[in-house]
Amino acid sequence: MITIDYQSKLPLYEQIAERFQTLILRGVLPPDRQMPSVRSLAVELSINPNTIQKAYSFLEQQGYIYSVKGRGNYVSDITALAEQKKKNILKEAERLLSCGKEMGVSRSEYSAVLDRLYGKEDNSDDRTEKP
Amino acid sequence: MITIDYQSKLPLYEQIAERFQTLILRGVLPPDRQMPSVRSLAVELSINPNTIQKAYSFLEQQGYIYSVKGRGNYVSDITALAEQKKKNILKEAERLLSCGKEMGVSRSEYSAVLDRLYGKEDNSDDRTEKP
Amino acid sequence: MITIDYQSKLPLYEQIAERFQTLILRGVLPPDRQMPSVRSLAVELSINPNTIQKAYSFLEQQGYIYSVKGRGNYVSDITALAEQKKKNILKEAERLLSCGKEMGVSRSEYSAVLDRLYGKEDNSDDRTEKP
Amino acid sequence: MITIDYQSKLPLYEQIAERFQTLILRGVLPPDRQMPSVRSLAVELSINPNTIQKAYSFLEQQGYIYSVKGRGNYVSDITALAEQKKKNILKEAERLLSCGKEMGVSRSEYSAVLDRLYGKEDNSDDRTEKP
DNA sequence: GTGGTCTAGACCACA
DNA sequence: GTGGTCTAGACCACA
Questions:
Q1: CATH code at position D39
Q2: A76/A64 Cα distance (integer angstroms)
């Protein structure tokens, strides 16, 4: 379920946290599902338990999981959090796309990307899609 | 021309290099323009010359500048590099946008971003977008 | 394993990097083998850790090693790199040999060099050359 | 006649000296031909005269040219020198080819290079060429 | 312990 | 003056 890329420049604990974030956001790990214990995951990944602990603290701090003393860590209900995440992505996208525009990327090049993602049916005017 | 953010978690040398990348990619610093000397920039920014040197080495390694011993550092001709960079941005955009789609971002939300960047009048042809 | 030539005009960090390149390309240091730590090697060679760090950064930039923060530096899988290196050598050889031809070096003089390297018995097929 | 590559990592004076070496070794500049004056060449290349002077001293030290006080610099008779250069190239070739062998370059790959340089008529046995 | 960054300061080759 | 290398020494994040 969790894979580590030792060549990545991201610290291990962030990689682990990020992976869990995705799993939680996608609903693979539903609310109140128990997280694997720090120790078992440490053994499974052959990683120092401190690192797992750090990843879990990180996730808890961000609201993805909550910890119950003596029992373990559990997945939070993240409906609100997901909305937040969506906004972050839109903001990040704006920054990236703007950066590309500066480099000479045309609107149609971006539209082509959207076409690939969402299908092509309605690409000449998408204003009718807006609520 | 160069500003330092001491709050940023990015190392100084990367901040400096990144800033110059932008200036070079935007054409503010044209090919063969001499870069500020290591020492003068170090004084101007109140930063150790070694750190500037590191930033310049970094830029050289990436092909943004070239160095002539005893003379100084000069901006490279980065037309090929810029093309490459554009492709990278498109690829990165695809990844990010796809990630957003997974989170429930609709095409129209992305289109709204594009509208904001390129103007709204005409989204099938982008040559007339700039006011 | 690593020797320094203080007479050489090559910078220390390049000497060190080059030495490791050879060891890695020859397979003496196999993929994922941990490199000596920056500090331990610095002590062993009586060289400043910064210089070792620079050598390692150099190797990383060239793809010979990868670094895991807090853990150490490790040898990369360089099969692709080795192929590339082989091509570079052939290209360089062509340039050098051509330069020699211009100076009057005959084909037989070059063949003699090859004979010395690969053995003399059979120069149309080299699969049986090694004793 | 002389071209400068400011992107090269070789110092200017070496680039200039090397270029003259080639011209002299190839006989383009025959023995006793007068070299361009330091000043005129400096102007022509838009380079500091000191640098030209350094290149000429370098050439003189290696025996490629000789200087006559108050008159200028002249090309030496370099027949002996050419022989020396040839030997150097053969030695360098041996080192490079050996390095390639270590990387897995086969004799036939090298033979192919020789074929390209000298033509293919006699590549199965070149021992009859030897004096 | 491990790598990464940064400063202060020195020395060198080159132009 | 210009870049490049190196040492000594400090501090930080990460494992």
A1: 1.10.10.10
A2: 5
